[in-house]
Every structure is written in C-alpha cells, then in structure tokens.
Amino acid sequence: MEGFINLITWLVGVGQNMPELAPVQLVSRTILVYGAALLLLRIGKRRFMGRFTAFDILMGFVVGSVISRAIIGQTTLLGAAIILITLMIVHYAISLLSYYNSSASRTFKESKRALVIKGKIDEEAMQQSKLGEGDLLQAIRKEAGVEAPEEIQSAYLERDGSITIIPKEREPKIVEVTVEEGVQKVMISFS
For residue 53, how many C-alpha atoms fall within 13 Å in the half-sphere facing its CB? Predict the structure, then answer.
C-alpha cells in the first residue's frame, strides 16, 4: 500500500516546483486537474454558460491558463506543450466517447430537462435547474411571444443552458366572407 501511495505522490509531483516536473507528472497532473475542474463545472449551475457546455468552457479556461503560465515563464515551453497536447487528446477522447456512447454523452454534457409540459410548469425540474419562474417567463415571452406557460406546449432547458419553447398548435381562424356585387376589395385583419 505504501508503494502505491508513493507512486501516486510521484505521479502528481507533490512538493515539486512546476519546471522540475517530469513529462509523465505533467500528463498526470493535467488529467487530474481537468477531471476535477470538469466535475466542479458539472456540479455548478449550467445556465451561466450560455451556448457552450461545461466541457467546452473548461477547455477554454485551462488552455488559457496554461498559455498564460508559459508566456510569463511559470512553466517551461516543453511543459506547456505537453499539457496542451494532453488536454487536446483528453478533449478529443471524451468527444469520441460521447459521440459513440449516449450514456457517456449524458455524463459529460448533461441532457435536456423539461420545464413545462402541456402548459404546466414542472416545479421539481425548475428547482433542479436552479431556475426562477421569472427567467422561464422571460424565455416564454422572448421565444414564443406569449405571456403565460399555459399558452405553450413545452419548454426545455437545453444541454447548453438555453431555454427552448415549443408553442401550442393554434386552431386556424376561419372567417366566412360574403362579397356583394360591385365590391372591388376585401380586407381581413387577424390579431
């Protein structure tokens, strides 16, 4: 057991300065930090991210951080290159896994959540999403052009944090018009 702990300690380079780490230590630290940061973003609120998944935002944060450290000399260029290549490989591997395995896709990228079904708000889904009724009503007004949830078929919190609204099918208004002889123009306005 002590040998295993020593191996883990060496792999993550505990107690060493960054420029003195071996390439395998840089790779293991990168994977560990990436996994921990992805977990934290998944636990956190997803609506703040707009059109991107936690997966994409994390990649941007970590790459930006690594690049800045390489620029100001807190890590060697070789170390930064190893970290960036490792990140790209991990990102690509997770993307492939998500593409070919739907349960892995849900693990890394969430799934849509129904907030409104047949005009009724799902309070449990709203609470799980940490979404206020005011935010939902704003989305309903913006996307469907109506005032109340009863006026829409459904609303979903999407994987990227946006809200999609599906309006109810509206019955077409049928108006019967009788045109008298000599009438040249008939105007009908629907509101």
Answer: 18
> pLDDT tens digits, residue range 105-128?
766 666 778 888 988 988 998 888
Q: CB–CB of 57/34 below 8 Å?
A: no
The CA angle 156-159-160, to the nearest 5 degrees, is 105
pLDDT in tens, 55-114: 777 888 888 888 888 776 677 768 888 888 888 888 888 878 878 887 777 666 667 788
Put simply, whether the predicted model's pTM sits higher than 0.85 gets the answer no
CA dihedral 119, 120, 125, 127 (to 10 degrees): 120
CB distance 166 to 118 below 8 Å: no
What is the Cα–Cα distance from 44 to 130, expressed in whole angstroms? 10
CA-based nearest residue to 83, from 19, 12, 29, 36:
29
